[in-house]
Structure of Malate permease:
Amino acid sequence: MLGIIKNTITDNAILGAIFSSIFIILLGFYLRKKEILNSVASKMLTKVVLSVSLPALAFTAFMKDINGKQLREGLSILVWGFAIYIILIPITKFIYLKVKGDKQDVYRVLTIFGSTTFFSTPIIAVVYGVVGVMYANIFNIAYRVFLYSYAFIKMSGAKMDKDNFKKNMKEIFLNPIIIATFLGLFIWLFQENLPQVAVQVKGEVKEVAFLRIDQTIPWLYKPLTYLKTLASPLAWLSIGSTLAEVPFKKAVSQKDAWVYSVIKVMLVPVLNLVLLMVLNKLNILPVSFEGLAATVIMMAAPTATVAAAYAISYDREALFTSNCSLLSTVFAVFAMPVWIVILEVIKSLGIF
């Protein structure tokens, strides 16, 4: 066991991924503190990541040949995405049974929804590659559905009437990342049924779907590969600069926010890990190690920006939410390497 842990934490690829994320987050923190990055620049970084880099990352992850095994695993990840959020709704009710009133709703929503897209996906891209990103984006479909329906209703107190339904459907389906995910997913799933064109791949002529632009129009695909590589460093810079803007001393003194952070970043992913491992063992939802790892890293994300925005907008424990967002992010930055090591140990021991 100790040998496996030692080999894992001394692996250059894993060490490089962990160090890179922490270093660039700290760099973003430093740049914001020194006003090299001002608040406007920090917000623009976030917009670039969410509207350009992450959509490029989502789309390019599906530019690959399909095989039966990955198709079955992708379906398992999609089903599990919906299942875990349905499971977390009653479980968080039990966890926060002693918390009364509005605060319980806030606790539950902030615990269920993490910053999966902005925080976790860039880490998955670096550690688990395009396969991990593909599974992460499939998993995130359910996240978007519940975030703009259940979370909105809980935090706003509003009913999902016709106007709110239309608004939230637009938020879900007109989001650039969701558009890129569905477009990529469509091409990946139906590439054998789409019109085919002959292309030369490694000296051999093969037929591929005309929408596989990585093969058919490589000069158009190339800019997307540059944009996707920006996702991780820009996201980490933005996280660091955002942390620099929040008063840390007040947040640290709030015990409730610390308790929440441990539950969000450690307990929730443990639940995800155990349940998915059991379902995989029973062959109910077969997934690969990359699929399992992607879901764990996604569930270990800190407070979701949208969930926090709901709480602040509707005046639902706004100060508490801000403190939770800050502490869970700091906690997640240092917990993420721990999760990566735990997952690698599980893989090395052959447990999964």
